Amino acid sequence: MKKRDTKKRLSSKSASTLRVEDRVESVSSEKESRGEADEKSSYTDLWFDRFLRYAAVDRGLSPRTVEAYGRDLSLLGEFLEQRGTATVERLQREDITGFITFLDARGLCARSRARALVAVRSWMRFLLDAKKIQIDPTQDVVAPRFPKALPRTLRFDQVVALLRAPDCNTALGLRDRAMLEVLYGAGLRVSELISLSMDSLRPREGLIRVVGKGDKERIVPLSEAAFAVIERYLAESRPHLARAAQGRTTKNQVAKQPVASRAGRSLFLSRRGAKMTRQNFFDRLRQIALVAGVPAQAVSPHVLRHAFATDLLEGGADLRAVQTMLGHADLATTEIYTHLSRTRLRETVETRHPRGRSRRSGAGGLS
Length: 367
What we know:
Elements: H1 13-33, H2 44-57, H3 63-83, H4 93-105, H5 110-129, H6 156-164, H7 171-186, H8 190-194, E1 201-202, E2 207-211, E3 217-221, H9 224-243, H10 259-263, H11 278-292, H12 301-314, H13 319-326, H14 331-352, H15 357-360
Antiparallel strand pairs: 1-2, 2-3
């Protein structure tokens, strides 16, 4: 994966506007030097592409987010072309509401339509900052409503079964156990987990440094038990996996790659001595679930993140503290776990309490 250059965040809106204007003027100059008229360029070739470059470089959004924005804006471009809206300056509220209807006719669910509107709103803010439009046509558009589904999670006994499933007497099993301990013990996203480096660990302080969405760093506590597994992995398993890279050649068979060139400072390595990938870990997790006797279709890295948050809240953790550890920008995103926690408590009462619904069936009434 190519390293992404990051730039310093802008300290004020005026600075952000100036930067966007500079970028637009630069691209416009390039177009003029090639004899191309700015107004005749398509949405996708010009303003969409400018916005996506801005989102990736200046805002530092993740590649997956930029890719999703690109798909949604491509649909908008298709709709506007059919509608005959020639330039961005002529965009009106009716174009946006018509686009939402267009997506509905395409069979997109309410959640997908709402996500597309988020992409369009971001694009409009970019056009406003670039002074290409004067009024945001999305400002009064109501996003499609959809019921918020509670995140899937696991019972604590299922989490314990997953943690105990890997065979720690093997290099891969010990690595898997260490990855599970960090994933559940710190509530990381899978992208954050595989991006951890040797320098991310602070064992004396019981902390790890995590780089999350938008290259935002946060410090997350990790238990002594988890660090004990990591230390054993570093001593016994990682050196063995790193040696697997020795003697391997590049695709062009040009020269042998030394260990450091493949493993680098990545904390978790594959059997080939390279940095672990999302798909590799996902596949390993499904195999671990089968060994643990947990339904494989119910397990994913994000489900363990949900379990981390839910178990913390059920244990009495402060909501703000959980928000910080998860790296959520908005507290409302974290609050959904309080609903999940209450749902699990209700289920416990229903199944465990003597007067619970499932236990009083057939018991008869009070005499």
